[in-house]
């Protein structure tokens, strides 16, 4: 049962990472930034997308280990 929830968690983390990546590409291409300082947001969103994808891969690894250990 724990492996199932790890897979669900991985699915959500990878989905969020994918959508963040699309948002980052849009923010970078439109040069979206803060109003006062002009700091670009796109690269921070891109970093968050990488971290979400990394989280998804870690939870997939955890699910694999739980399934492998249950056999």
What about the largest sheet? none
Approximate shape: rod-shaped
Strand percent estimate:
under 5%
Straight-line N-to-C gap: 13 Å
Radius of gyration of CA atoms, rounded to a whole number: 16 Å
- Indicate the mean pLDDT: 94
Number of helices: 2
Structural commentary:
The protein is 80% helix and 0% strand. It is an all-alpha fold. Helix 1 packs antiparallel against helix 2 (42-70). The longest helix is centred in the last third of the chain and has 29 residues, at 42-70. It starts with a helix and ends with a helix. The model has no long low-confidence stretch (mean pLDDT 94).
Which features does this protein show?
2 helices, 71 residues, mainly alpha
Question: Concise description?
Answer:
This protein is mostly helical. 80% of the residues lie in helices and 0% in strands.
């Amino acid at each position: 049962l724990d492996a199932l929830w790890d897979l669900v968690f991985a699915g959500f983390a990878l989905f969020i990472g994918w959508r963040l990546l699309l948002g980052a590409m849009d923010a970078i291409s439109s040069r979206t930034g803060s109003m006062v300082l002009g700091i670009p947001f796109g690269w921070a969103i891109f970093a968050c997308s990488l971290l979400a994808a990394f989280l998804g891969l870690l939870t997939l690894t955890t699910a694999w280990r739980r399934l492998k250990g249950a056999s």
